[in-house]
Amino acid sequence: LGFELNLKKCEIWWPSGDQTFASFPNSVKRIPQCGVDILKIPVGTNEYMAQYVADKVADMKKLMEMVPLLEDLHVEYTLLRACMGAAKLTYTLRGTPPCPAVLGALAEADGLMRKLLGSRLCCSVAEAAWCQAGLRVTDGGMGLRHSGDVAHAAFLGFVLRSA
């Protein structure tokens, strides 16, 4: 049929064992043993997954630094609630086990959201107020889901759905 495998687009990874893969052509890219991204989900060591989530949080921080430039509090709140924080990380959290290193990166993400909320409200956000902000709007909250709170449920749902 004329189909040929493009070896430049191929990658090979195995979590343990021989990493040389001598039987494969040298043009096939070898991925380090620590981990790999499969459909934008990190798979590998806890450190690799935590670094992947930390990189996502760093990207989120860049976005959050631009939010005050909008100069419209309603639009800023809507973007914060619907497009940042846990909403930005949900897909990654579904396939990433919530190990302590990953939860540490998620705590940083929640801290960034809390700091941005406080700067837009022109006050510090107390712990009780931050917990209430994480509730649904219908429950008297602001709908700002905390990524650390949804990590376990997201991963559990992913595992149960995959079985």
What does the model show?
- With 163 residues, this protein is mostly helical.
- The protein is 53% helix and 7% strand.
- It contains six helices and four strands, in the order ββββαααααα.
- It has helices spanning 46-66, 73-83, 86-95, 100-121, 127-133, 147-162; strands at 11-12, 29-30, 35-38, 41-44.
- The protein has a two-stranded parallel ribbon with strand order 1-2. It has a two-stranded antiparallel sheet with strand order 3-4.
- β3 (35-38) and β4 form a beta hairpin.
- α1 runs parallel beside α4 and α3 (86-95) runs parallel beside α6 (147-162).
- The protein is elongated.
- The two termini are 37 Å apart.
- The model has no long low-confidence stretch (mean pLDDT 89).
List strands and helices in order, with pairings.
Layout: E1 11-12, E2 29-30, E3 35-38, E4 41-44, H1 46-66, H2 73-83, H3 86-95, H4 100-121, H5 127-133, H6 147-162
Parallel strand pairs: 1-2
Antiparallel strand pairs: 3-4
Helix pairs in contact: 1-4, 3-6
